[in-house]
Amino acid sequence: MIAIFDFGSQYSHLIARRIHEHGTVARFYPYDTTEDKLLADGIKGIIFSGGPDSIYNQEAPRPAKEIFALGLPILGICYGQQLLADYLGGKVECGDRHEYGAITVKIDDKDPLLAGLDLTEEVWMSHSDRVSLPSECRIIASSENSPCAAFHVDHLYGIQWHPEVSHTTSGDKLLNNFLTLCGCEQDLNTASMVDSLVKLIREEVGEERVIIGLSGGIDSSVATALCAKAIGEQLSAVYVDTGLMRAGESDAVEAIARKFGPRFIRIDAQERFLSRLKGIVDPEQKRHVIGEEFIRVFEGVARAEQATFLAQGTIFPDVIESGGQNQQAALIKSHHNVGALPEKMEFTGIIEPLKYMYKDEVRNLAQQLGLSRNLIDRQPFPGPGLAIRVIGEVTKERLLLLRQADSILQAEIAKTELADQLWQSFAVLLTNKSTAVKGDQRGYAYILAIRMVDSKEAMTARFSRPDWDVLARLSTKIVNELPAISRVVYDITNKPPATIEWE
Q1: Catalytic residue, candidates 99, 121, 164, 305
Q2: What contacts 90, CB < 8 A, 6 or more positions away?
Q3: Cα-Cα-Cα-Cα dihedral of 398, 403, 405, 410, to 10°?
Q4: CATH code for the part of the protein at 395-490
Q5: Which pLDDT tens digit goes with each residue over 426-468?
Q6: Is CATH 3.40.50.880 the classification given to domain 2-182?
Q7: Residue 196: CB atoms within 10 Å
Q8: ∠ CA 428-430-432 to the nearest 5 degrees?
Q9: Do 470 and 419 form a contact (C-beta atoms < 8 A)?
Q10: Which of 78, 137, 148, 227 is catalytic?
Q11: Res. 32: pLDDT tops 80
Q12: What is the pLDDT of residue 328?
């Protein structure tokens, strides 16, 4: 396993992603992690990420000096390079010229870290500082503005550019070289991952009972299947009917869940959730209310089931957007199962076997576990449900209208080739109303937004470009069949800058 010390770079999650693709496990650690913790976890190497700080700032985050002396290979990227240079007694200062975006570097030394790279490489830079080093350090790459774009001394490797981003031509090759230097076997696959996760769950739970929140989506379903494989009858799967689901979804989830094996419990909490959401329009507040209410429902079930652990299908994009990967990370929005959890809970611990995985990795696990194709291909659906697709206050009437519109949307898409291509497609009910003309009469009704996106792991997404005829049919059918909607608009915003969901 590789330890990533994340210092707040916007690209940090991509480091883990690339390492996973090379068959090795990567895990994030706080920058003040002790050497004993790393040794106990069997870490093979360490990566220091980039970050917004400069090492010459007195308050800049620094790892303990003992980490450098462990003898484990350390790769410092951007700010991480500065940390290594500072430790070695080098100098870090603000450069006369900054380097952002695509930059050409010259490979000055065919160091093992740069094996297989060309003499000149296009890389992605994002920095304003430059480093100078003591004479015993070998400079292995340079750029026009960075005489020391990369260096190596003993077990320490520092590079100024970001190998984790796709714009760096040979970034994958460099990271693969580092994993080789660490002695990683790079044998991670879905079969070995299942065995490892099952073992970890058993070790953490012991003989205790566990309840797992099962929403019917791919993430919670895979987490349930893993926990069932690990602890069998110690597990109870709990589905909470919040009243915020799509048409017919609760019954469909129950039908799927009863095939999983563990004891299944369905809780009708519709009135409870709608009552808590009354009058709330702020999306962050919605997520926190929903997150807390889920926990309170789960606590009640846990007491009845004599369970001490809660398991969840949290995946890594949830953690990233909730600002939960480290102290420096920015909050984008609190996911109900991460950043919106209440501070006080009755559980001994929370089991999150998928916490460091991306959606496509979870789908691969689902295949290995033998889950149905319909479930594997199911579009992601947010834990807070339609509450974050009803913009503004959530009411029974507005939920019903959105369910009807979304049903029309999904039925029409199912008739097209888009059904097998889209990552996600959904409708959003706005608070705005718009004037309409229906049968020579004036109408004044809600505006509905349609969103369709293509993605691989939900960290980035492009808006889909369906045939105009598809959009025309959708608009006509929705407006004709639902008098409370007068206008349909299509969202053409990528992620970034937008998130996939509107709230």
Answers
A1: 164
A2: 131, 132, 133, 134, 137
A3: 160
A4: 3.30.300.10
A5: 999 999 999 988 777 788 999 999 999 998 767 678 899 999 9
A6: yes
A7: 14
A8: 160
A9: no
A10: 78
A11: yes
A12: 46
CA gap 313, 216 in Å, rounded: 10
Fold matches, 2-182 and 190-376 = yes
Active-site residue flag, 164: yes
Domain ranges in the chain are 2-182, 190-376, 395-490
Q: How many Cα neighbours within 13 Å face the side chain of 80?
A: 29
Rounded Cα distance between 135 and 143, Å, is 19
**CATH number assigned to the domain covering 190-376:** 3.40.50.620
Q: What is the pLDDT of residue 95?
A: 55
Number of Cβ within a 10 Å radius of residue 450: 21
- Is 352 among the catalytic positions? no
pTM value?
Answer: 0.69
Helices (H), 343-417: 359-368, 373-376, 396-414
Marked catalytic residue, from 127, 162, 288, 336: 162
**Token digits of residue 82:** 């500065």
The distance of Cα 82 from the centroid of its chain, to the nearest Å, equals 28
Instruction: Please indicate whether residue 217 or residue 276 has the higher confidence score (pLDDT).
Output: 276
Please say if 127 is a catalytic residue.
Answer: no
- pLDDT of amino acid 188: 64
Phi, psi of 158 (to 5 degrees): -120, 130
Q: Count CB-CB contacts under 10 A for residue 420.
A: 7
Report d(CA 265, CA 213) in Å as an integer. 10
